[in-house]
Amino acid sequence: MSQLALVPCVNRLVLLVEDNEDEEILTIDALKTGGITNEILVARDGAEALDYLFGSADSGTLPAVVLLDLRLPRVPGLEVLRRIRATERTRRLPVVVLTSSDEESDLKASYGNGANSYVRKPVRHPEFVKAVQELGLYWLTRNEPPLD
Question: Contact 77/106 with Cβ under 8 angstroms?
């Protein structure tokens, strides 16, 4: 995949919700080496993600995209997704489920609760990097969100 010289749009923050430190590092590294220069905020559990979205940042700008793991401590990923979709302010926020789960029930529940995309984390490092780079490029440079 060729790297593009990308300039982040103003306030195009990425919220990565990931409790596994190794996968957090791999995801951030893949985004950066893929040319994504946007700020990446990490929430290490579902409660931290909800606090960011509905607590401290409630009156601020929402992230451009949420990369959401399903297996999270404190508040599971599907519950985070349900709460995002249940609130008018966050209802249209792009949420990409980025998970190692290969359970069909997780896939169906994710889409049933309003996920915009479901990406299984490839086990092999090169495929993982490519998958994260592709989703970063799409959601941060190609996708056109509504302006409100």
Answer: no
Q: Is the pTM of this model over 0.85?
A: yes
Max CA distance (Å), the chain: 40
Q: Would you state the CATH architecture of domain 14-139?
A: 3-Layer(aba) Sandwich (3.40)
C-alpha to C-alpha distance for 69 and 110, rounded to whole angstroms = 11
Predicted confidence (pLDDT) at residue 37 exceeds the cutoff of 90: no
Cα 71 to Cα 45, 67, 137: the distances in Å are 9, 13, 25
Q: How distant is the alpha carbon of residue 4 from its chain centre? A: 21
Query: pLDDT of 64-85, one tens digit each?
Result: 999 999 999 999 999 999 999 9
Please report how many Cα atoms fall inside a 13 Å half-sphere around the Cα of residue 141, on the Cβ side: 18
Q: Who contacts 130 (Cβ-Cβ below 8 Å, separation ≥6)?
A: 1, 122
Cα(61)–Cα(59) distance, integer angstroms: 7
Q: Is-contact 15 51, C-beta < 8 A?
A: no
User: CA 11, CA 119: separation in Å to the nearest integer?
Assistant: 24
CA pseudo-torsion sign 85, 57, 59, 147: negative
